[in-house]
């Protein structure tokens, strides 16, 4: 069994930019207003200087953001529209809320299209996990299930920690321990019906986890 060490990065300051330079390659995900699935994912460049932010997307769209007022995280774009920066991605990136869409900026650019096609459970692989899988997942208010990639770290006595990537691209861990189920930095409500666990995260997302994924075949 592999020994997996989770390192928690404590980020200080106003920005989670992973380098001292004022620009970095990044990955941008665009969510239309009110939608919980990305309409588009593409490489982009993020830069900041003296409070001003520029996000240059591979599709040619450029967002020029200037600080607005005294509140931290408030901006105006080049068209004068209000834009709000949020830190809901932790040290993985930043979120910018535009009037008509949300822009998630991740410091990890992710794989090439070919690499993703070759590994449907990317970013998880058996080089780092005991097994990988695609879990059925959906927003609590949605009717149809989608698929969320996950990496499985199994332990003795039928226990496991499963690292899941949510539809929004955020990673978190669900721990299936003897006598309880919890999630890292999130609330979790779990129930088991036959060979399937149903886990509701933060009262907003539903994940179905087969017992075989936890215990192995």
Overview of the structural elements:
With 217 residues, the protein is mainly beta. Helix content is 5%, strand content 49%. It contains 2 helices and 16 strands. The strands form 2 sheets. An 8-stranded antiparallel β-barrel has the order 1-2-3-4-5-6-7-8. It has an 8-stranded antiparallel sheet with strand order 13-12-11-10-9-16-15-14. The protein is elongated and about 55 Å long. It starts with 22 loop residues before the first strand and ends with a helix. Residues 1-21 form the signal peptide. Keywords: Signal.
Q: What labels would you give this structure?
A:
49% strand; mainly beta; 217 residues; signal; 8-stranded antiparallel barrel; disordered N terminus; elongated; 8-stranded antiparallel sheet
Poorly predicted runs are 1-21, 112-117
Q: How large is the radius of gyration?
A: 19 Å
Write down the overall geometry: elongated
How are the strands of the largest sheet arranged? 1-2-3-4-5-6-7-8
Number of strands: 16
The helix-strand sequence is EEEEEEEEHEEEEEEEEH
Average pLDDT confidence is: 84
Instruction: Tell me the span between the first and last alpha carbons.
Output: 15 Å
Q: What share of the residues lie within helices? A: under 10%
- Percent range for β-strand residues: over 45%
| Major sheet size, sense and barrel closure | 8 strands, antiparallel, barrel
Task: Label the structural class.
Answer: mainly beta
Number of helix segments?
2
Task: Show the helix and strand layout.
Elements: E1 23-32, E2 40-49, E3 52-57, E4 62-67, E5 74-76, E6 82-86, E7 93-97, E8 101-106, H1 113-118, E9 131-139, E10 146-155, E11 159-165, E12 171-177, E13 180-183, E14 188-193, E15 196-201, E16 205-210, H2 211-215
Antiparallel strand pairs: 1-2, 1-8, 2-3, 3-4, 4-5, 5-6, 6-7, 7-8, 9-10, 9-16, 10-11, 11-12, 12-13, 14-15, 15-16
């Amino acid at each position: 069994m592999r020994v997996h060490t989770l390192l928690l990065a404590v980020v200080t300051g106003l920005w989670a930019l992973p380098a001292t330079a004022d620009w970095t390659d990044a990955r941008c995900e665009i969510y239309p207003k009110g939608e919980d699935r990305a309409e588009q994912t593409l490489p982009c460049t993020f830069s900041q200087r003296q409070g001003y932010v520029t996000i240059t997307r591979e599709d040619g769209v450029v967002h020029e953001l200037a600080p607005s007022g005294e509140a931290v995280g408030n901006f105006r774009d080049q068209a004068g529209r209000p834009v709000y920066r949020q830190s809901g991605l932790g040290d993985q990136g930043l979120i910018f809320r535009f009037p008509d869409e949300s822009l998630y900026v991740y410091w990890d650019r992710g794989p090439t299209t070919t690499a993703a096609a070759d590994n449907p459970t990317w970013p998880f692989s058996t080089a780092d996990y005991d097994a990988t899988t695609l879990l059925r997942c959906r927003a609590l208010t949605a009717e149809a299930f989608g698929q969320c990639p996950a990496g499985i770290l199994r332990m003795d006595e039928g226990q496991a920690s499963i690292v899941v990537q949510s539809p929004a691209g955020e990673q978190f861990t669900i721990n299936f321990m003897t006598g309880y189920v919890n999630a890292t930095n999130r609330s979790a409500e779990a129930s088991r019906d036959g060979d399937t666990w149903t886990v509701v995260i933060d009262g907003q997302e539903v994940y179905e986890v087969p017992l075989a994924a936890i215990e192995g075949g």
